[in-house]
């Protein structure tokens, strides 16, 4: 059965094309610094937003036109797999991602849930055997069901902790079976609403224990994929323990987990934390912890997680700058954790949205590489911090001074002269590079 019969294979046609179902800037075979765009960008499709979202919101019921929704239960799950791999082939992506409950419905018992998941995983495995699209990462949904009202690994209820461990155990087995390159932990309800009823130390200690158990089990079964933590400051809890990269890094270091985890960074989560997307990528990069990316964006006029498809070229350029500076994403990728707007309810809109996101990051990739090649930012930053390469600055960096010596030096200074940071000039240069790329 064809689920997207009005859409053919999406191909690259160049920036002069007027075909809405064609890439204008993303050419998977084009080489950038010796690697193809496909290799560098490693795009992935989010199973949940693309195949399970129905368009419902707090003010209205589902309105998405999805031919597979005529089914229910396991028949619906199987139809979604068929639709998914048709979509993957037509949009030509190398990866996809899913939560366990995205691909298979929960049963009345955990045993039934396992059985449902096993059946669908075998189906996915069969499709993957003839598809180029592989599993970027999988994870366990431990936030939707009422049992997780107080969290999962940080729940006040030890039975929920045990249930959560069972779900992750199964998730790791699925990851190994499907060759998942990463395994993600997003603590949807790993946080608190009020300290009036919260034992924060116990909850954080239990979260550390949980992650160590996951590390141990992965070793036991021989799963070698990268573990990832996805930071988010709020929603659904008021304060989540993985608030941002810096908070998550401090947690990993405290519980001696920093050698086992990296970060999966989402653009919209960064802005919810009061940071820019590139800030979170940069903090992860300079600490050797940048693992993968959820590529989306928020709405600056709305204060919640809108999960829009990324079309901000300035943001995609600065994001790709950090990713290229990181040497790429390794086993990670750019997963479109993004959903079409409620008013974009026809099946073709899923293609338009992904094309827009893929083209946006292709532009960002090309501009970022040109900025690096031309040392636009590197050269400016090196000059700006040049005082630390000689004299007293070099002594500071190399640890060859102390407060006594610094005071003696400061007392001899006739005056202190600073130079401009040239913020506006640099932004203008980036605009120039962007406009130049768009005209080619």
Order of helices and strands: EEEEHEHHEHHEHEEHEEHEHHEHEHHHHH
Lateral arrangement of strands in the main beta sheet: 5-6-7-8-10-12-13-14
Main sheet summary: 8 strands, parallel, barrel
Oligomer status:
single chain
Low-confidence stretches: none
Please specify the SSE layout and strand pairing.
Layout: E1 11-12, E2 22-23, E3 31-32, E4 35-36, H1 37-41, E5 43-46, H2 47-52, H3 73-91, E6 95-99, H4 100-103, H5 110-128, E7 134-139, H6 158-178, E8 182-185, E9 191-192, H7 200-221, E10 226-229, E11 239-240, H8 245-254, E12 261-266, H9 267-272, H10 277-286, E13 290-294, H11 313-325, E14 334-336, H12 348-373, H13 376-384, H14 391-398, H15 403-411, H16 423-438
Parallel strand pairs: 1-2, 5-6, 5-14, 6-7, 7-8, 8-10, 10-12, 12-13, 13-14
Antiparallel strand pairs: 3-4, 9-11
Helix pairs in contact: 3-5, 5-6, 6-7, 10-11, 11-12, 12-16
Describe the structure.
The chain has 440 residues and is an alpha/beta fold. The chain has 16 helices and 14 strands. The protein has helices at residues 37-41, 47-52, 73-91, 100-103, 110-128, 158-178, 200-221, 245-254, 267-272, 277-286, 313-325, 348-373, 376-384, 391-398, 403-411, 423-438; strands at residues 11-12, 22-23, 31-32, 35-36, 43-46, 95-99, 134-139, 182-185, 191-192, 226-229, 239-240, 261-266, 290-294, 334-336. Strands 5-6-7-8-10-12-13-14 form an eight-stranded parallel barrel, surrounded by four helices. Helix 5 (110-128) packs parallel to helix 6 (158-178), helix 11 (313-325) crosses helix 12 and helix 12 crosses helix 16 (423-438). The two termini are 40 Å apart. The mean pLDDT is 97.
